[in-house]
Amino acid sequence: MIEAMPTIDPAQLDDTARYRLLIGAVVPRPIAWITTVDAAGAVNLAPFSFFTAITASPATLGVCISHREPEKDTLANLRATGEAVVHLVPPALLAACHQSGAAYAHGVSEIAELGLATVPAQQVRPPRLAAAQVALECRARQFVPVGDPPTTLCLLEVVCAHIDDQVAAANGLPDPRRLVAAARLGERCYLVADAWGVQALPAQQVPAGKGLADG
Ligand SMILES: Cc1cc2nc3c(=O)[nH]c(=O)nc-3n(C[C@H](O)[C@H](O)[C@H](O)COP(=O)(O)O)c2cc1C
């Protein structure tokens, strides 16, 4: 017997409920904590959790910025100057990250408001956050509108990566046992941990005759 499970038709929900459905179901989501600059060089900081890595060749991130009138500063800055630094969020800075998502007026620096320290990036104008253990300097490559009014999927190519020693393996790349980042759950809830519940598994084996190579 197939057990009945409640179903939801997203098309029957209002915008708010549809949003809550997705942010509650697709969890945990990493948070892109993004610095950008406007044409005059003013720095902006904001968090985005409709975010993931898209492809490794070229190294590309996808960040989705929803419609707003006026356009969100991060999107306006990306269109104007094409550069960003995407940080993962150290658990100790989660409260600042959450607060940086408040609707500050254009021209107000979230970085100054929150008392965050920055250091210059190497290849792009926006500074990077000194306390972030992973900072990815990016150039915007494509803006893809989705829906109406459109959310904009921003494709950002990583041109320089900074990985703190404390979260890196001996080869300098991120160590999954050491790097822990805060992540967004549903409602206004976050996943915050001192360590992940990491489970390392052996490489997959395909039974003889069932693999691509011997098919
Ligand atoms: C943890 C977190 C995640 C968020 N994720 C998104 C997102 O994926 N897309 C989006 O458009 N807004 C998201 N927001 C809301 C924006 O951060 C918010 O609209 C912010 O004011 C935009 O700032 P800006 O105008 O400086 O770019 C998120 C907020 C928080 C706190």
Task: Describe this protein with a few key phrases.
binds flavin mononucleotide, alpha+beta, 215 residues, three-stranded antiparallel sheet, 31% strand, Pnp Oxidase, Chain A
Structural description of this entry:
The protein has 215 residues and is of the alpha+beta class. The protein has a single domain, classed as Electron Transport, Fmn-binding Protein, Chain A (Pnp Oxidase, Chain A), CATH 2.30.110.10. Helix content is 14%, strand content 31%. The chain is built from four helices and twelve strands. It has helices at 15-25, 73-81, 94-99, 110-114, and strands at residues 29-30, 32-37, 43-48, 51-56, 59-65, 83-87, 118-119, 128-129, 134-146, 151-163, 183-184, 190-191. It has a seven-stranded antiparallel β-sheet with strand order 3-2-6-9-10-5-4, with helices on one face. A hairpin with a 5-residue loop joins strand 11 (183-184) and strand 12 (190-191). The radius of gyration is 19 Å and the shape is globular. It starts with 14 loop residues before the first helix and ends in a 24-residue tail after the last strand. The relative contact order is 0.17. Bound molecules: flavin mononucleotide. Flavin mononucleotide is lined by residues 31, 44, 46-50, 64-66, 72-74, 98, 101, 103, 184. Residues 31, 44, 46-50, 64-66, 72-74, 98, 101, 103, 184 line the site of flavin mononucleotide (FMN).
